[in-house]
Amino acid sequence: MAQAARKKTQGRGLLLQALALLIVVLILGLIIHNTVLNLEARGIASGFGFLSQPAGFDLAFHLLPYDETTTFGQLFIIALLNTLLVSAIGVVFASLLGLLVALARLSQNPLIRLLGTIYVETLRNIPLLLQLFFWYFAVLRNLPGPRESLEFFGVVYLNNRGLSIPFPMEPAAAFYIALALILGLIVGHYLRQAAVKKRVEAGRFPAWHLLPYAIPVIFPLLTLLLLGQRWQISWPELQGFNFSGGLQLIPEFVSLVAALSLYTAAFVAEIVRAGILSVQKGQMEASEALGLTRLDTMRLVILPQALRVILPPLTSQYLNLVKNSSLAAAIAFPDLVLVFSGTAINITGQAVEIMAMVMMVYLLLSLSISAAMNRYQSKTLHYLGQRS
Amino acid sequence: MAWTRFAKKSPLQLVITGVLLALLIYWAWPVFDWLFFKAQFTGTDRSACTGEGACWLFVRARFDQFIFGFYEPSERWRPILVAILWILGFIPVRLARFPARKALIPFLLVVLPVSSWFILRGGFWGLPSVETSRWGGLMLTLLISAIGISLSLPLGILLALGRRSELPLLRWITVAFIELWRGVPLITVLFMASVMLPFFLPPGVEFDKLLRCLVGVVLFTSAYMAEVVRAGLQAVPKGQHEAAAALGFGYWQSMGLVVLPQALRQVIPGIVNTFISLFKDTSLVLIIGMFDLLGMVQAASTDPEWMGYAMEGYVFAGFVFWLFCFSMSRTSLRLEKRLEQAR
Amino acid sequence: MKSFWPSICGLSLLITSSWLQADTLDEVKKRGFLKCGVSQGLAGFSSPDKAGQWRGIDVDLCRGVAAATLGDANKVKYTSLSAKERFTALQSGEIDLLSRNTSWTIVRDTSLAVDFPGVLYYDGQGFMAPKKLNVKTLKDLNGATVCVNLGTTTELNLADYFRSQKMTYKLVAFEKNDEVVAAYDAGRCDVMSSDQSGLYADRTRLKKPEDHVILPEIISKEPLGPAVRHGDNRWGDIVRWTLFAMIEAEELKITSANVDQQKANSNPAVRRLLGMEGDLGKNLGLKADWALQVVKQVGSYQEIFERNLGANTPLKIARGQNALWRDGGLQYSMPFR
Asked: What is the pLDDT of residues C118-153, one digit of tens each?
């Protein structure tokens, strides 16, 4: 009888799945069918031919060379890089600030604790878009013009055109060097793993065991030599309407990074705090008994264990940050959403293709970040498991 | 008590605290000055503002618009009525001993959102119709979030059940659906809903722009909700499923009566957090040309009459958003504590 | 299950056939109101007043089309669109008519699947700068930061102009005109560039309008007009001839105030326009008095110009190029016969 019942549920399960599949296929089919017919009926061009046409407009901020002959395809890459840059810098700042605020909230000093609480409760309860507007429209409005810039130590200037800081090379060169550094770190990481493996097998480190540490230094240096870039500090100075020389950070960039990292830091702080609290009090006392300082306790005992609790929610905060960077569209920072699904749609009129590309990029980004974090997490757990 | 103990334990900390406090007062004082002491609260137009402190006249002059948008002044009793209905609807939920609490759930999740829509929209029984494009301000913010919240929860639960299902095909479909919505930014979803949707529909099929945005918001939020609920489902011990099965419960019975109540209780904080982010995200509708509270403030601060008072507007809007979000998070904290005691 | 695919095919055929007959006029009539896409607020062209009522010359064109097709100028539903949303909204059918200070260019006409039935306002791209910058001509703008509206011809013309003059500039492109104005007023950029009429409109919204000057030079032609979907010729004709009816009314000195008296006029041209003789509306699918309704409910071109842009408005724009052809301008209605 039990078997008959199971068979019955199995049959029902199959039917249910078939039904679900049918509905999905039907909906997808109808959407595609409608879209194709709609586009045809209205005589709208389709396909990706537009990617090789020149875009013909200018960009306020770009990492790769850009001029009026740049095609939409290249524009896509350039805009994507802007999105990635803002997200990467935002993630770094948000993590550092979040850690700091979390430590403040756990401080023994009640005033510091209070300040941490005020920070968290204020920033996470106000919409990011509002904070973005605040930094961009309300704060910017009160900054002086380029000719009356706020001066810091005679080298850094802040005005309503942005932040000008001295910079030791051309910004484009810095970008390639940063790429080389990242590449070096990745290669170094794998070499280090190989070295450890060798040691496990052969009982001692191979002769090149220091190479993994050298590569992240060698790669950028090589790039520097290849580019023929000389170390020459360029100082910002007022020329005509605006500052030139040094590194010019436009206000859109500054306020976007500020808003994203300040906002996300409030969430990161809560996650880190919960993680640290999750480590039992006994552990702290034990390490105190071992004579570890408070800082060492944090670094060697608490944080590695807390990481286990912290990582999953932290990943989703990073993902949120990447997606939130699309709010750049509201304050004119030329990110993927503003430039590609904005200006490009308006010029080419191919909304379906462009939106599909943009959404696909975000989807891939978020899937790959969560995949990378999952991998890292399973490794960390493995590592911690061995030790405990 | 704690302070004296703290002071005795570490005099250095006391010094640090003192210095910090002094710095804080030094920096915070001008802020309070601007916000209250030097601010202008009364007067008739911008000429009354000196520029020394905040000009709250701006907020006062536009207050009605900030709350109702362009909703016809003579019809404003309707949003107020809807607000009262929602408050009345949710009081019994808070009263633990209300007899028919369970029966209220469908009422809250379906009847209330639908009826608020029709009351606000009008156009029947002699109620003048009010175009949704005239809805705005805090009313629109609250409406989108209230409807979004009440519809995304049940949908999210269904998706979570689908993701935990033993039927592989069903599981894959829900996983794909959830990951798709979680992977894309809300503004692209809203853009699609606001101007591109007619591409995907047969000609002649059309529905209101606000309604389309709501659908986008609900689908987007339900994907996040599904992940929260899934965590709760995972936390319910397997024995509970087995016990329910041993009692002869079918799938829906065991889920509805045994597993889900426990799972949902586990993740109340997560659910409330999703609500809070939905509430904050409603401000994104301004990008597609709707005037929610923030949109209204933004529009008013670029009005020639009040240009240059953006700061006051943002502070006001920020305070309103903060008030709602903060009280929601406190409520969730209280609920959590109560449940912990009950456990 | 067997009958599933055939029925799907049948269903799609059914839907497909309705596509081929998609006719905007029929849809508008069936729906009972016109869906008109306007800007998010550009004084004089389309902006909501304090009570949230849309006003402006672009709005009056929408009202005119509603009067011609539905007999009631108020049966319009306005959708405010950013520059980047406008063509997508028109293409997708979100709106029936785009009346949003849009420039008629060959690329838009040929590759975006939209048609431009006429020119409502002849404009050109200009620049506005603060007086204290002491900018006299465009040649002084080398290296300047320029605020513009995203996704407009302005953005493209700017790139061309500075390239041809071998000058450099920095671009800040906002999605909403409101934001362009706010950023310019906050000093984010040295100059602001847009259609010159728009600059006059935007100047009135600055904190101190008298501190800003609009440079005399114009770097492009910007024929602003309505746009409709490509392929629905009858609908395009309706919009075109609604616009011409307004211009023709000005030529014949018919206004909303005197249109009822004009019915007694013996001038055949007046009688034809107002539907007293012949039936010019028939081939458009409209009633015989369609043009009469346009003039009566909305007004002649002169009226809508003066009401929204003219000397009695804060914009104080002179007719200039937009005067009638016989007064030395470019506005010219094709003959009504």
From this structure: 999 999 999 999 998 888 889 889 888 999 988 788
Between CA C81 and CA C94 the distance in angstroms is 11
**Which of C19, C112, C163 shows the shortest C-beta gap to A41?**
C19
Sheet containing strand C212-214, edge to edge, reads: C169-174, C144-149, C191-195, C125-130, C212-214
Q: How many helices (H) and strands (E) does chain A have?
A: 13, 6
**Contact predicate A263/A93, CB 8 Å:** no
| Exposure class string for A173-198: b at 16+ Cβ within 10 A, else e | bbebbeebeeebeebbeebeeebeeb
Q: Does C115 touch chain A (CB under 8 A)?
A: no
How much of chain C exceeds pLDDT 90, in percent? 54
CB pairs under 8 A between A and C: 134
Is A5 in the B-facing interface, judged by CB distances under 8 Å?
A: no
Q: Which chains touch B (3 or more CB pairs under 8 A)?
A: A, C
What's the one-letter identity of residue C215?
L
The residue type found at B105 is I
Helical (H) or strand (E) element with C100: strand C97-103
Instruction: Say yes or no for a CB contact (<8 Å) between B299 and C178.
Output: yes
Q: Which residue of C lies nearest to B70 if distances are taken between CA atoms?
A: C52
Judged by CB atoms closer than 8 Å, whether chains meet at C27 and B204 is answered as yes
Q: Where residue B59 falls among pLDDT bands split at 50, 70, 90?
A: confident
Cα torsion C152, C153, C158, C160: sign? positive
Among A306, A34, A23, smallest CA distance to B169 is for A23
Instruction: Give B298's contacts in chain C (Cβ within 8 Å).
Output: 178
B108 CB neighbour count, 10 Å cutoff: 15
pTM for the full predicted model: 0.87
Contact flag C82-B310 (C-beta cutoff 8 Å): no
User: pLDDT (tens digit, 9 = 90+) per residue, A261-313?
Assistant: 999 999 999 999 988 888 877 787 788 888 888 778 877 887 778 887 888 88
Using an 8 Å CB-CB cutoff, list chain B residues near A34.
199-202
- pLDDT value at residue C57: 95
Contact B203 C22 (CB under 8 A): yes
Of C30, C50, C172, residue with least CA distance to C96: C30
Q: Which residue has the higher pLDDT, B263 or C295?
A: C295
| Mean pLDDT within A154-171 | 80
CA B88 – CA B317 distance, rounded (Å): 26
Position A62: which residue type? H
Three-state SS letters, chain B: CHHHHHHHHCHHHHHHHHHHHHHHHHHHHHHHHHHHHCCECCCCCHHHCCCCCCECHHHHHCHHHHHHECCCHHHCHHHHHHHHHHHHHHHHHHCCCCCCHHHHHHHHHHHHHHHHHHHHHCCCCCCCCCCHHHECHHHHHHHHHHHHHHHHHHHHHHHHHHHCCCCHHHHHHHHHHHHHHHHCCHHHHHHHHHHHHHHHCCCCCCCCHHHHHHHHHHHHHHHHHHHHHHHHHHHCCHHHHHHHHHCCCCHHHHHHHHHHHHHHHHCHHHHHHHHHHHHHHHHHHHHHCCCEHHHHHHHHHCCHHHCCCHHHHHHHHHHHHHHHHHHHHHHHHHHHHHHHHHC
Q: How far is A330 from chain B (nearest CA, A)?
A: 7
Residue B94 pLDDT: 64
DSSP C51: T
pLDDT for B123-168, tens place per residue?
Answer: 788 788 888 888 889 999 999 998 898 889 899 999 999 988 888 8
Question: Is the sign of the CA dihedral C171, A133, A259, B210 positive or negative?
Answer: negative
Distance CA A279, CA A294 (A): 15
User: Token pair for residue A96?
Assistant: 């550092």
Rounded average pLDDT over B196-214:
83
